[in-house]
Amino acid sequence: MQDRPVIWFPRIVGILTALYGLSAIARPDVIARHGELDSPDQRRSAVALLSAIIGVRDLVSGVAIVVAPCGGVLLAALTARVAFDGGDAVVFGRLLPTPRARRKIAGVALGWGGISALSMIWAGC
Questions:
Q1: CA distances (Å), 43 to each of 29, 48, 50, 81, in order?
Q2: What 8-state DSSP symbol labels residue 98?
Q3: What is the pTM of this model?
Q4: Cα gap 52→48, rounded to integer Å
Q5: What sign results for the dihedral spanned by CA atoms 112, 7, 65, 80?
Q6: Which of 17, 1, 27 is closest to 84 using CA atoms?
Q7: pLDDT value of residue 39
């Protein structure tokens, strides 16, 4: 029984990823605020588009992690998640408008990528 929470660790990562995806779709202002893209000179449509893209990607990858069978399929879903977060860290870490926003978003992306990578240990269930 002690191993049960560990077995579910990748599934929890998937659920949290999917929930974040839904929040990004429903509330694009969250990504805009954290990325410091909410200034009056930023175009709202661009921020909404970015949030929707990230939201759909995270929703789909999170659900894939939750429903994937143990083993190679779950490992592949987690690998994709790590790649997405690594890409976010590089892109947002270079292109956001302020150094503070670049560090913050890159750090969050690397943190989630690390959590997803760690959960790969239990992908074999």
A1: 12, 9, 11, 28
A2: S
A3: 0.76
A4: 6
A5: positive
A6: 17
A7: 62
